[in-house]
Amino acid sequence: MRFKTFTLIAAASLGLAACGDNVGEQALGGAAIGAGIAAITDGDIAKGAAIGAGANVVACNTEIADCN
């Protein structure tokens, strides 16, 4: 169950990439998305925020998401 929630959060964070002008904005956008998904799936909101922030920063700084 935990892996399923983690996978959902990670996939949604990449799919909903919230690219900002700098790493802080990218992390904040990802954290919001991850926390929201964790709340909807009855997961740990802090973990969802951390996973979302990390996933969004990675997505925005690689070619995974088109942030331009």
Description:
It is built from 3 helices and no strands. It is mainly α. The chain has a domain at 17-60.
Give the fraction of residues assigned to helices: over 70%
Radius of gyration: 11 Å
Number of DSSP E strands: 0
Please write the string of helix (H) and strand (E) elements. Answer: HHH
Number of helical segments with 4 or more residues: 3
Major pleated sheet: none
Strand content is: under 5%
Unreliable segments (pLDDT under 50, ≥5 consecutive)?
Answer: none
Distance from first to last alpha carbon: 35 Å
Shape: globular
Structural class: mainly alpha
* Average pLDDT for all residues: 80
Structure described in brief:
The chain is mostly helical and 68 residues long.
Q: What is this structure's SSE topology?
A:
Layout: H1 2-15, H2 23-40, H3 45-60
Which features would summarize this protein structure in a list?
globular; mainly alpha; 0% strand; 3 helices; 68 residues
